[in-house]
Amino acid sequence: MRILRINTRTRTFAFESASPLGGLGGRALTARIIATEVVPDSHPLSAANRLVLAAGILSGTSAASSGRISVGAKSPLTGGMKESNAGGQFARHMARLGLRAIIIEDKPESPAAPCILHISAHSVEFRDAAELSGLRSYAAQERLCALYGPHAVSALIGPAGEQCLKAATIQFSDSDGLPSRAAGCGGMGAVMGSKGIKAIVLNDDGDEHAPVADPEAFRAARREWAGILHDQPAPDAASPSFGTAALADLLGLSNHEEPRHRIEPFEGASRICGETLAEAIDAHGASTRRGCHSGCVIQCSRIFTDANGAFVTSGHPHETIWRFGADLLIGDLDIVARMDRACDELGLDSLEMARTLAIAMEAGLIMWGDGPAALRMLLRVDADEQLGRMLGNGAAFAAAAFGVTRLPSLDTLRIAKGDPRAAKKRERIHPAAGPASTDTTVASIASDDTLGHDPHIATAAADSLGLCIFVAFAVMRDPRGLPCMARMLTALTGSEWTEERLKALGADCLSDERNFNERAGADAGAATDAHHHSVATDGTPWRKNQ
Ligand code: SF4
Question: What residue's CA is closest to ligand 1, atom 8?
Fold first, then answer.
């Protein structure tokens, strides 16, 4: 496996051996590269920052649900190291090109039209992309398909990334060719925009297959692995029929036990829950049970269409539905889906933008529950105007601008599932990881000491292997999970993997993140309890003006 290093100022590139990085992959690899190559107190949008895209150790193999991509950088949103994890076809195609990671460094000396990086097995083409400048994601992907073929596998930014806004995402094309999979958290799109890159396209000339040390043992282990994932009951794992929205009803209706957080459940929860979503999808003739990348056996994704069967959006997860829905009091799946699509089009993190719109509602700019007004406000980010820029820089920025003091964020990053109505312990944050952990990649699974494993270490390890977060449930709850993962890795790499080595992979990754964040000045200790940010200092619920 190789590392591809691209300099965006000199427009040069080099292929390097990945061996010095000790066989790391995914999140562990992005963390190690950022920790060793980025000066912790450098500006996230400066030439000193790196943007790292890393495939997992299992990416490119036939192991189920192993095609996730990790994107890492010093985050413009938090000021600390951030890894953002996405689906799509990118990681598998990187593996076919023999690439474990792509490191994008430096930045153009003067602002210029953005460019496209077209990566082949042995070369990189820098192509000026003036015609793509300012394009929304779906239109940009269409142009890329016209330039590079109908199945172009891409990572691209929307208008938010081009403006270097802190909530900007990188959008990855999925197995349907749609740019619907977002590396959403931490402003990775702003870092890509700062380096003058509109899109990265992987050529399809790659024909490398991950070398497997013991093919027969690997086949047996990955068959068992697929069986373990199949056996996980919904909603503990993502539900193929309802999608992860199966959780929206459960969490939207539950009360938290802590009195100062108690607010009434959202009465419209049943209008946005997984069952209602599945019924709407059935009635509209769309489809559930889709994978965000080929090779996923859980398949929690789906296409959402309107009542006339016209495509609206793809793969909006439960977090997006309950953040735009229950948190903003919008009990309308169609509007919620259009807001998700708007985020994909503009290249914005839907969770950060839901928090930001809540700030706008708290400030009285729009009414709680007014879906059409919320959608119109979201689309103002596209206009490159002052209000749009305030919103596109996220909830903390908007709160400062609008004078809102109750801010559901940890430092400057929105809490992924900070809903005080949610299940007990749901938002406990690992003190070791600091701001990097406030994402679905780590912090938002139920934390239960009876599981016998640290969920943060388990998910950091899964992220490093290229596995979806939903396999973490299998790893933590099924005694066959960890031993099976270890057998797969031993058969793949030819070196001995044990449960202890897997845990060390996750723990070392968290350690790299923590050490960098401490050197960058982040207060890791403040991350031990995120809930205090969701209430005012007098203990009142943060949403009081509904
Ligand atoms: S379970 Fe869902 S999010 Fe995870 S890899 Fe499969 S489709 Fe993607």
Answer: 292
Q: From 198, 166, 21, 194, select the one nearest 82 (Cα to Cα).
A: 166
Query: Residues lining ligand 1, CB < 6 A?
Result: 65, 87, 238, 291-292, 296, 298-301, 468, 470
Boundaries of every domain in the chain: 2-202, 235-401
Instruction: Please provide the size of the chain in residues.
Output: 546
Q: What is the mean pLDDT of residues 41-70?
A: 94
CATH number for the domain running over 235-401: 1.10.569.10
The answer for residues whose C-beta is within 8 angstroms of residue 303's C-beta and 6 or more apart is 176, 281, 286, 287, 290, 311, 313, 314
- Residues 57-67: tens digit of each pLDDT: 999 898 988 99
* Ligand 1, atom nearest to 67 Cα: 5
CATH level 2 (architecture), domain 2-202: 4-Layer Sandwich (3.60)
ipTM of the complex, rounded to two decimals: 0.96
Give, using CA atoms, the residue closest to atom 2 of ligand 1.
300
For helices 455-465 and 499-519, the axis angle rounded to 10 degrees is: 100
Q: 511 CA distance to ligand 1 centroid (A)?
A: 27
Ligand 1 centroid to 535 CA: how many Å?
A: 33
